[in-house]
């Protein structure tokens, strides 16, 4: 079987190996981890024709530069609007191409977005923990953070030229200045005027932003009741308010329990776009009922499935591409040799 | 809490079953009973159950079920005749109290008016129970620290506290699993691995397990690490 060997020439902080994550171990203090933008991760695998969920690389705003030192492998990038270049030639931010020995792939933050995923046509060799290669930042368990000089191996590496493409990101992956939130479960710890401020005033992402969570700046959210609640389990997306009235949105590598009240939670379907915001970006919370959030999750899943199915079709040979364009355009050439 | 139990929707994919709001062995036993009932008879669409002191979180697949259905199923499980809580297994954790492994032992002794040996004896005398895991992988929060050595956490956290540290604050004790800062009092070091490295049983404790600490010599500590 062919193998491709890559060398990490430069890796910014928070770049790591991620797969679909390790759900099911929260009762042992282990969060799900996995990609900050799960949809971008799924698109990268789909665009290569990979099965869902294998190990990939997650790139932060710190950027990543890879050099191929042996073999060749097709790769896909999706998530955010990064500047992607192969040997200095720009590719689209969401793309499929092939990296061969001697070539360099660079990913730098672009006009929008904080995270992207690179998947490979092959099996990325990565250390696993509890059955998953997802890196848990606090412990380093799983595939691990990427470091300059590191060697990466892709087993069963394939060139999939028929998959080469530039993908147009769907509109809904872009963050907006409205972030949905479901109130609770401890909104009772807050006075009505504090809840009103939470619903109506503007917040910003601070620069205290990593895979564990992002602290917000905005109106103070004083906790009105005595802070004596026993620690309880928390979900990814929980908006936890510490004793000094500062809110933090808990993300992929969150602690699994918290003793501070949760004023609300950003529903999971909205977290991919939320994570693509950057420090300094401003937004308002938009309160949804649990039922409306659930309906939103179902709509989002349907839209995602549709996009992934389309992205998963190989672009194919020139003839196949033309045939599909004709179909899409409703035009039939109608001529056979 | 005004009424218990209470089933609170959380986000678009979870329900929090709140059975009370205190840290109490009987209440925790109720939580474990519900946890055991869920393990035996999982709610359709459920992904995982996370027990804590006084409540239990159930996460679910929003494409398969909804908050209301999960809450109803949890209420039905609670209404059943009390099943015994899941089986608890007594666990033993070894600890070495040598001064260089127990940087706060002297301060705990001074603040409690005990000798260092009396602090150690009190720690060893405690009957502990794992109430929940939290914060980081394998961080098992045990209650049971005897009253004479209960101290509020320190004013400032100490950085880079090594894995295996045995730390206490108030009624709680835990054995750390990764190098982390902590504001709890560091009174010993354990070679017992909470993260076992065994794929079949990756964590030493189940929530609810009773735990005893056993003092070991430096030689044994060195041999086991």
Question: What is this structure's SSE topology?
Answer:
The complex is a heterodimer of chains A (337) and B (225).
Chain A lengths: L2 E9 L4 E3 L19 H11 L7 E4 L4 E7 L1 E7 L2 E6 L2 E3 L3 E6 L3 E9 L3 E5 L2 E2 L26 E5 L9 E2 L11 E6 L8 H9 L1 E8 L3 E5 L14 E2 L4 E4 L5 E4 L6 E2 L3 E4 L5 H5 L6 E7 L1 H22 L6 H12 L8
Parallel strand pairs in A: 14-22
Antiparallel strand pairs in A: 1-4, 1-12, 2-3, 3-10, 4-9, 5-8, 5-10, 6-7, 6-9, 8-13, 11-12, 14-21, 15-16, 15-22, 16-19, 17-20, 18-19, 18-21
Chain B lengths: L5 E5 L3 E5 L6 H16 L5 E6 L3 E6 L6 H13 L11 E5 L9 H8 L3 H10 L2 E6 L6 E4 L14 E4 L3 E5 L2 E4 L4 E3 L2 E5 L20 E6 L2 H7 L1
Parallel strand pairs in B: 5-13
Antiparallel strand pairs in B: 1-2, 2-4, 3-4, 6-7, 6-13, 7-10, 8-11, 9-10, 9-12
Helix pairs in contact in B: 3-4
How is this structure best described in words?
The complex is a heterodimer of chains A (337) and B (225). Chain A is an alpha+beta fold. Chain A folds into two domains: 3-173, no CATH class; 178-294, Beta Barrel (Cyclophilin). Chain A contains five helices and 22 strands. In chain A, the strands form four sheets. Chain A has a seven-stranded antiparallel beta sheet with strand order 7-6-9-4-1-12-11, with no helix packed on it. In chain A, strands 14-21-18-19-16-15-22 form a seven-stranded mixed beta barrel. Chain A is elongated. With 225 residues, chain B is of the alpha+beta class. Chain B has two domains: 6-79, Gyrase A, domain 2; 91-224, Cyclophilin-like (Cyclophilin, Beta Barrel), CATH 2.40.100.10. Chain B contains five helices and 13 strands. In chain B, the strands form three sheets. Chain B has a seven-stranded mixed beta sheet with strand order 5-13-6-7-10-9-12, with helices on one face. In chain B, strands 1-2-4-3 form a four-stranded antiparallel beta sheet, with helices on one face. Chain B has a two-stranded antiparallel sheet with strand order 8-11. In chain B, a hairpin with a 2-residue loop joins strand 9 and strand 10. Chain B is elongated, with a radius of gyration of 19 Å. The mean pLDDT of chain B is 94.
